[in-house]
Structure formats: C-alpha cells, structure tokens
Structure of gibberellin 2beta-dioxygenase:
Amino acid sequence: MRLANSNSTRTLPLFCSVLDPITMVVLSVPELDRISLIRAANPAARFDALPVVDLLSPDAAATLIEACEEFGFFKITNHGIPTDLMRRLEAEAVEFFSLPPAEKEKSGPANPFGYGNRRIGSNGDMGWVEYLLFSLASKPSSHVSVSNSFRWALNAYLSAIRELASRVLELMALGLEMEPIDAISKLVTDEASDGIFRLNHYPTCPVLQGLNCSLTGFGEHTDPQIISVLRSNNCAGLQIALKDERWVSVPPDEDSFFVNVGDSLQVLTNGRFRSVRHRVVTNGSESRMSMIYFLGPTMAEKIAPMRQLMGEGEQSKYKEFTWSEYKKAAYKSRLADNRLRLFEKSK
C-alpha cells in the first residue's frame, strides 16, 4: 500500500500503521496491497468553478471552447437524454456487481475486455474498483455474460450517448469556426471507429472509516481518445488536476454528463485544448458507479494538428501518428505516464 499526497508517494508494507491527526489505525487487509492511500483533500478543493455547457444556451459553443482550453473538462446540461434510460443501465450494473464473485468472474479476466477486479491493465496499476470493459467495434455485450435486460439497457444507452457526442463535437467545430461542421465528429462516427465503454464500480471499504485519507479507486491518468463522456451516480470521488497541478473534487450530478478532452484531441488542436489529468478516490463509506464512453477514431486514422486550426506560421508540436500506434503505446504504459511525450517534436 502507498500513502500519497500531492507531492510524494511512499510505499508501506502490507501490514502497516497509517498515522492520522487524531488516531492511529492498523491496516491488515491483503486486498488493499499495492493500492495508494491519498490524504484527504481540503474542503476548499471542491471544484466550484466547474464549467457548465447548457446545450440550449446560445453561448454553448463559446463556453465549451473556453472550458476545453482552460480545463479540458466540462459538464453538460439540457442534453435531452431521459433520466430513466440512464438509471436503467445503472440498475442493471448494480445487479451485475452484486453477484457472487464466482459469477462475475465468468465474464473475466479482462484481457483487456470483460470483467476485472482491482487490476487495471497489465502493467501493474491497481485500484479499489471492479469493472466491465466493452469493445464497441463488435457487439458490446459479446465480451461478457449479461441478461437480456442488461443488453437492452446497454444498447439503448450507447445509442443515446453516440448522438450526444456528435452534438458536442459539432458544437466544438462551430466554436472553432471549422468547416464542415462534422470535421471532428466524423472521426468517431464511422462504423469502424474504435469506441470503448466502461462500467466502474467503486465498492465501500469499511476499513477506511475514521481515517483522514481516501483510497485510490482509479489512479491519475489522461484518456488517449478524442473525448470521453462520463455519467455517475451521486457519489463523489472524481478529481481533476488544474494547470497549476492542484487536484480539485468535481461535485457529482447524476442527471448530467461530464466530458473529458483526450490526448488525441489535444494533438488535433496542436495543444490549444488540454487533455485533462483525472483520478477517482473513495472514502470507503459510499459506493460509486460510473459509466464512461471513450470515443476514438478508426485504427488507421492519422492523428496530427488540423491545418484549419493552425495560425499562419504555426508549427506542429507533435509527430503524426495513427490511432493504432498511439493505442499500442497506451496499452504498454502505466496509467500516470505522459504518453504524448513520446510523440512531441523536439523544440
């Protein structure tokens, strides 16, 4: 287990004592081995400046562009997706994750798709999370054994989120004064586009109660794709890093969606938009459920700064690469690695 704050991380033995300002608690839980403890954030770290893009507002495009430049992250309201549709999939996910471990493990191990528990990827990253990961290049339910009602709820949700993502990316093109309006959205709407969908469940962890710290649910990282669209229940835990590297907590809102700018979009805009570094932490007392749709291009798509977004005489900051090349690099890296560094041009 590791005890972490914003500046340092140190490894503790499996059977360890964690010093709290009030009390000392001895943790002897094998399941928590190699998962980081994060010192509790100051309440002032709540992200009250969260940009909100109201899709019915005439200022939506301008707000979206400003949010992508400053934070790489924003909330979407008035999106038009029925609440019942969101909650139906959440209920199906809760039912799945409530199954006995042996039943859930029939859909795993994740390699990379399917059911996973604590192990994130194949490079040593761990978190207090269990998940279902779907490739959308094939039938999304083909990697796991799910009920017909789960399959129906999943397909209905994915269809709605695809439409929402297209609207968001067209609004982005409008704000950037790009033509045609689908200049960005067409990259993720092709039948061969590389979409991935993840259901994350962060269970309760009673051993943490009374400690002045949180447990890493999903370690800090950026998303490799163009954008990702997130929805969660009303349990807090999502945090993003600001430009000054301070971590802030995002207030939950189960009726809205959140959008992350991914590495590929940072490259397409030549660094004008920033890929947001984010993580999920849990205090162990509440169960968090999140649903994330990662929208990537086709495997052969070439990723490079888009000409119409570059000013006169502006030089590309990145080497051109295909989505396949970048995806392979991502799978070989640890969560916290700066993957784009491998593709940056020398200054």
Summary: The chain has seven helices and 19 strands.
